[in-house]
Amino acid sequence: MKLDTQTLGERRPLPLRSTSKTPAGSLWTGSRRVGPFIVAIVIAVMILLWAGSNNYRLSTVILAVSYSLIALGMYIPVAWANSLSLAYGAYGAIGAYSVAVIAKTFGLPVWLGWIVGSLLAAAIAVILALATARLLGFHLVAATLLFAFAFQTWLGHNPALGQANGLVGVPGLSLFGWVPSAQVLVTAGVALVLLIAVAMDRAKFSRWGIIVRSIGEAPLVVSTSGISVPQMTIVVLAIGAGVAALGGSFFVTSVGGITPETFNLNVVFLALFMPLLGGLGTAWGAVVGAALTVFLTVQWKVFSAAGGLLVLSIAVLVVLLTVPGGMLGLLSQAGSKVSRLWTARGGVNE
C-alpha cells in the first residue's frame, strides 16, 4: 500500500491561512509564496542596520540568532511530529563545547567543530530517542528534562571542560588566514537562520514533510502504508538536534567562550515559548518568536528591569488566548482583511 501524500496533505490546513477565503494575492498563503521570505529579508536587513558596529547590539543579535537556531531545531519535532523533547538546551551546549574543545584543546579549525557538534548532537538524540521509545506524554517530557539537567550537571563537574567556569579564550573563526569581524559573523548567522527557515518551510509541503506531519496527526495511517513511524520520528529528532547544535556553535564562535549555565533549562523553556509566540504554522514563527523573546527579555530595558521572563510569559499567554496562530497568524489575518477590503473597493469602483 502506497502512501497517498495528497490525501495526507489535506489532513492539516495550510499554515498562516485565514478560516475565510483568502485572496489569491495574499503574501501569506501557501509555502510557494515569496512574501514571507521577502519580509524576513527586509527585517533581517533592518536588524543588521540597527546593530551596526555597536558591541551591545551585536551581542543581542548573536543571542537572537542562537535562540532562533535552537527554536528551529525544536520546530519540526514539536510542530510536525508532536514529539516533545526538553533536551534542546543540551544539544545547544553540545554544539558549543564541541567547537570550544576542537578549537582550543586540539587546535583544529573552528568550522570542524560545527560539523562535529551537529553530528554528535544528532547521535545523542538518536540514542535518547531509542532509550525513551516506550515513553509517551508526561513520562517522555520528564525523561528528556532529566537528561538535560543531568547533562548540565555533568558539564559543571567535568575538569576537562572547565567545570563551572567553562571554556574561555576559544580561538575565533579563520578562513585561509582571514578573520571575519563581529559584524560579518552576525551577518552570516542571520543568513544561516534565513536559509534554514526557508529550507524547513519548503520541506513542509514536500513528500517527506507531509509524511512527518501526518505522523503527528494520524500515525496509524502512516504505519499502515509501510513507513516505520518510530524510525521516522528518530530521524526528525536527529535533524532537530543537529540544527539546535548550530545555535551553540554560532554562540561560542562569536563570543569566544562557553559555560554550563549558558544553555541551561531556562533556554529550553524559552525555546518552547518562541514558536508559540511567533506561530507554529510556519518555521518563520520560530524565528519571529526568538527575536521577540530576546527583545522582551534583554533589549527592552523597561520590560527586562521588571522581569523579562515574567513579561515574556504573560505575552505568550495573551497570544495563546487571543491569537492561537501567533504573531504571524495575526499578521496573516490582518493582511487577509486588508486584501478583501481592497478587492471589495476595487469591485465597487468598477
What does this structure look like?
By secondary structure, this protein is mostly helical. It has 15 helices and 2 strands. Strands 1-2 form a two-stranded antiparallel sheet. Helix 2 (35-51) packs antiparallel against helix 7 and helix 3 runs antiparallel to helix 12. The protein is globular, with a radius of gyration of 21 Å. The chain starts with a helix and ends with a helix. Mean pLDDT is 80; it is low at 1-32.
Detail the topology: elements first, then pairings:
Elements: H1 5-9, H2 35-51, H3 55-80, H4 88-105, H5 110-131, H6 137-156, E1 167-168, H7 182-203, H8 207-217, H9 219-224, H10 229-255, E2 257-258, H11 265-278, H12 283-299, H13 301-305, H14 308-322, H15 326-349
Antiparallel strand pairs: 1-2
Concise overview:
This protein is an all-alpha fold and 350 residues long.
The fraction of residues assigned to DSSP E strands is under 5%
For the sheet with most strands, the description reads:
2 strands, antiparallel
Q: Tally of extended strands?
A: 2
Q: SS-based structural class?
A: mainly alpha
- Spans of at least 5 consecutive residues whose pLDDT stays below 50 are 1-32
Give the integer mean of the pLDDT values: 80
> What Rg do the Cα atoms give?
21 Å
Helical amount: over 70%
Distance between the termini: 53 Å
Strand order of the largest sheet: 1-2
Q: If helices are DSSP runs of H or I spanning 4 or more residues, what is the number of helices?
A: 15
The helix-strand sequence is: HHHHHHEHHHHEHHHHH
Molecular shape: globular
